[in-house]
């Protein structure tokens, strides 16, 4: 097939789609054809798909370990801790996932629902109405950016950065990060298969082909679009992230409130084969687009794998498709809403999606100009996110997040209790031994961003600065009792007069099998994050007396 024919086919498909869909269409065209054998297995023997993922995972692990030992045969003796983590700890973790996955596949075979529960089913968990939470959250997402406040100390003017953590806004972003799980992947796969069939044929896409592809994509997203419309938002998928049936990126937006939210779908709690990407120990040099070294599995979902691919494929990489979709939608919003100020861009994700959100947020933080004149990068909210990078990645991120001072944005990492995923890679929190950890490649992982941990006993949430953290002020929304967050750090136990805690069903299961999970895995579920935040809601809300005191 000639290149001109290929271009004509692409144009005929693209011309039938909205502008923000063009990048997604190109993205689907660039997904590698899995071949007839794999497609047949997917279509007719879906229970074997996890087995194939495990085989592929083990192949990659053994290949990595083989080359590691080949070029460093003394590792077991010279670097015993490195050897233990790479050759024992992570393989054991993968085997545990295999056993858990087999158990859940049996549940699925017995017609026991193991899908992520939609937000509309969360109403039994809290006395607060989630639609009202979203109404308030959408308002906060569209508020103008506040970069800093001026304070006068004698003759000296102090500039204090504002880092807002509004509980309604954060829960709304959790809802959006959870809602992207509701896409029906079988319809997306059907659309991709038809696109690949068109690409390998000598004929152009027919009107029937175009109608079929559009119909499959609309059917895949129908549930999400309906939920988004109920909240006054729009939605579309924007990238498949180099995979078929795995994580993907979706985009929510509000023309009235002038904001965009990019939400990354994460690992499905009930399908542990998707967790394997968290158990890859390989890092990759990320300096071409990010900083330092980062987790290979996350990196290759967004960027070219190496320098050879970089120049050839960057324009077709998922990260560029995301940026193109954001710019296109921002231009549309700006034309619709001529109010002053750029379109606010927020990044979020849960689980694996939180890791991907972290890397994409870092890319935008490093090169904010790629978003264009119509956009302003706001905060990133990573829920249940695994650790993604080494100490060089973390230190460079911290340095960049403080510049320029007057336009600071924040990456928040939200953790629910004992959730295991944020601690899969053993991150070091002690600066005194950080220098020694960096010499052990397998455990040279360092957290970035501002960490907030919510508990399930109703106690006050804790805030933790990373070892290589930011040096600026860290404050909550001005309309909250956590004004300067001093109590969240050691040395301050100031008592607050707070509202009565919200009634929350802490142990209410949404899954038939949920209580079978060990607590560290159970707390990874999205609705458990909602429960933990609702238990702490009263720490963020003022009493009427406190509001009067502020006005006075």
TrEMBL record:
SUPFAM superfamilies: alpha/beta-Hydrolases (SSF53474)
Fungal lipase-type domain mapped to chain residues: 261-427
Transmembrane segments: 84-107
Entry keywords, A to Z: Membrane, Transmembrane, Transmembrane helix
Domain of life according to the entry: Eukaryota
InterPro entries in the cross-refs: AB_hydrolase_fold, Fungal_lipase-type, Sec_MonoDiacylglyc_Lipase
GO process terms (BP): lipid metabolic process
Pfam families: Lipase_3
Coiled-coil region(s): none
PANTHER family noted in UniProt: ALPHA/BETA-HYDROLASES SUPERFAMILY PROTEIN, FUNGAL LIPASE-LIKE DOMAIN-CONTAINING PROTEIN
Protein name (database record): 8809_t:CDS:1
Species of the source: Funneliformis caledonium
């Amino acid at each position: 097939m000639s290149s001109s024919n290929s271009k004509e086919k692409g144009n005929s498909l693209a011309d039938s789609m909205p502008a923000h869909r063009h990048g997604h269409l190109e993205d689907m065209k660039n997904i590698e054809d899995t071949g007839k054998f794999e497609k047949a297995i997917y279509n007719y023997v879906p229970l074997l798909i996890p087995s194939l993922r495990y085989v592929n995972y083990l192949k990659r692990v053994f290949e990595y370990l083989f080359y590691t030992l080949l070029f460093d045969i003394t590792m077991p003796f010279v670097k015993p801790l490195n050897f233990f983590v790479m050759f024992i700890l992570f393989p054991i973790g993968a085997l545990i996932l295999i056993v858990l996955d087999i158990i859940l596949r049996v549940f699925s075979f017995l017609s026991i629902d193991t899908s992520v529960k939609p937000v509309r089913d969360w109403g039994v968990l809290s006395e607060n109405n989630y639609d009202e939470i979203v109404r308030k959250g959408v308002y906060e997402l569209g508020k103008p950016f506040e970069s800093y406040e001026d304070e006068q100390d004698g003759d000296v003017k102090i500039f204090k950065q504002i880092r807002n953590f509004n509980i309604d806004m954060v829960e709304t972003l959790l809802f959006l990060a959870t809602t992207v799980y509701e896409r029906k992947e079988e319809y997306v796969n059907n659309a991709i298969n038809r696109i690949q069939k068109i690409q390998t044929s000598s004929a152009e896409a027919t009107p029937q082909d175009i109608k079929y592809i559009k119909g499959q994509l609309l059917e895949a997203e129908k549930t999400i679009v309906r939920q988004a419309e109920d909240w006054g938002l729009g939605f579309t998928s924007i990238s498949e992230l180099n995979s078929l049936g795995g994580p993907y990126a979706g985009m929510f937006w509000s023309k009235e409130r002038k904001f965009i939210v990019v939400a990354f779908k994460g690992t499905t709690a009930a399908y542990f084969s998707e967790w394997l990407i968290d158990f890859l120990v390989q890092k990759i040099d990320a300096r071409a687009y990010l900083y330092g070294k980062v987790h290979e599995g996350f990196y290759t979902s967004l960027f070219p794998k190496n320098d050879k691919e970089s120049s050839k494929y960057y324009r077709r990489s998922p990260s560029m498709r995301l940026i193109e979709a954001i710019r296109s939608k921002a231009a549309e919003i700006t034309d619709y809403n001529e109010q002053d100020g750029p379109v606010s861009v927020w990044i979020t994700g849960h689980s694996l999606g939180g890791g991907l959100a972290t890397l994409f947020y870092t890319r935008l933080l490093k090169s904010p100009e790629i978003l264009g004149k119509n956009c302003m990068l706001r905060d990133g909210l990573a829920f249940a996110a695994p650790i993604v990078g080494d100490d060089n990645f973390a230190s460079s991120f911290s340095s960049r997040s403080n510049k320029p001072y007057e336009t600071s944005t924040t990456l928040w990492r939200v953790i629910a209790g004992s959730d295991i995923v944020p601690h899969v890679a053993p991150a070091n929190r002690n600066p005194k031994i950080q220098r020694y950890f960096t010499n052990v490649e397998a455990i040279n992982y360092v957290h970035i961003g501002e960490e907030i941990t919510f508990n399930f006993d109703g106690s006050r949430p804790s805030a933790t600065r990373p070892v290589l953290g930011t040096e600026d002020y860290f404050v909550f929304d001005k309309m909250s009792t956590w004004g300067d967050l001093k109590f969240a750090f050691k040395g301050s136990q100031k008592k607050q007069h707070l509202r009565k805690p919200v009634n929350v069903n802490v142990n209410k299961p949404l899954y038939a099998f949920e209580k079978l999970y060990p607590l560290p895995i159970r707390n990874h579920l999205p609705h458990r994050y909602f429960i933990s935040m609702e238990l702490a809601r009263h720490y963020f809300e003022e009493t009427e007396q406190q509001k009067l005191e502020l006005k006075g």
